[in-house]
């Protein structure tokens, strides 16, 4: 069975929430990572499906390149 890898539909929200344990943590972690990417951080997935920073951050989380944790860390 092939996955639809079209834009924000890949990876699915269900797959992503299971990585972060809550939608809130997923949103915050993704936003922080997307901000890092926009500031020039190295992209950790080869040939990302998405061209936008937020989509790339979601793909990194899905592929366990970025781990969303419970720790409060200053920017």
Written account of the structure:
The protein has 75 residues and is mainly α. It is built from three helices and no strands. Helix 1 (13-20) packs across helix 2 (23-38) and helix 2 crosses helix 3. The longest helix has 16 residues, at 23-38. It is globular. The mean pLDDT is 85.
Short description:
With 75 residues, this protein is mainly α.
β content, as a range? under 5%
Structural class by SSE content: mainly alpha
Q: Give the ordered list of helices and strands.
A: HHH
* Low-pLDDT segments: none
- Fraction of residues in helix: 40-55%
Shape: globular
Ends: how far apart?
Answer: 40 Å
Q: Whole-number average pLDDT?
A: 85
Secondary structure tally: strands: 0
**Number of helical segments?**
3
What is the domain tally? 1
Radius of gyration: 12 Å
């Amino acid at each position: 069975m092939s996955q639809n890898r079209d834009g924000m539909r890949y990876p699915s929200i269900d797959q992503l929430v299971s990585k972060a344990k809550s939608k809130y943590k997923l949103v915050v972690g993704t936003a922080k990572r997307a901000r890092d990417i926009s500031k020039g951080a190295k992209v950790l997935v080869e040939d990302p499906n998405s061209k936008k920073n937020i989509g790339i951050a979601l793909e990194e989380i899905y592929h366990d390149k970025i781990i969303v944790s419970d720790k409060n860390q200053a920017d």
